[in-house]
Amino acid sequence: MSRYDRNIKTLSVEENEKLKDYKVCVVGCGGLGGYIIEMIGRLGIGHITAVDGDYFSESNLNRQILSNNLNLTKNKAVEAKKRMEKVNDLIKINPIEIFINKNNVLDILKEHDLVIDAVDSIETRFLLQDACEKLKIPLIHGAIAGWYGQVTTIFPGDRTLDIIYKNKSAKGVEQSLGNPSFTPALVASIEVSEALKVLINRGENLRRKVLMIDLLYQDFEVLDLNQ
């Protein structure tokens, strides 16, 4: 099948074939999540759970790849499924049309090989970290605001978010710095590359490290959290 020909050499034939067996949960289908779902779907990740209780609005059109003039007011997770049915009908998309919370998080995340954080709430990120630790599932974290972004890979027990965020109930800075089109696309790409490396167990990932991105001055710095 020629669909995945251009994956090969980046991936081995065996690695590429294995992608169809992985189950990945993407929490959030907006700015980050839309791009993440698009990329892992095109790669050939066989089972994707898309979680979001929100609906597209006009303010999403500047950056959220799943949004368009025709699906405003439609649920983001459902629209992710519709989009991927057009892009890659070989994969299975399970849309969860609710927000994740302490009562449903374990049921939603269980039986996945990997979870990708695409939310905009620090409190929800800690909820994901706690649940992934209990379920022994790796978590890829990403966050964006204006010109800036960050990515880290969290394995069960690492508690990396405890180092990055000192205040679990703090509000993010997205609203004060804005969200253009390019930052979520870049950060989502890095999250997907981290996810792929974890799944195929190859390369060096951002475990116990955080990649800090400043696109205004093209400054990329990896902070070692072990020091």
UniProtKB/TrEMBL annotation:
Keyword Coiled coil attached: yes
Pfam families per the UniProt record, alphabetical: ThiF
Alphabetical list of InterPro entries matching this protein: ThiF/MoeB/HesA, ThiF_NAD_FAD-bd, Ubiquitin-activating_enz
Parts forming coiled coils: 63-90
Domain of life: Bacteria
UniProt entry keywords in alphabetical sequence: Coiled coil
Protein's UniProt keywords contain Repressor: no
THIF-type NAD/FAD binding fold domain: residues covered: 4-225
PANTHER family named in the record: TRNA THREONYLCARBAMOYLADENOSINE DEHYDRATASE
Designated name of the protein: HesA/MoeB/ThiF family protein
Native species: Clostridium oceanicum
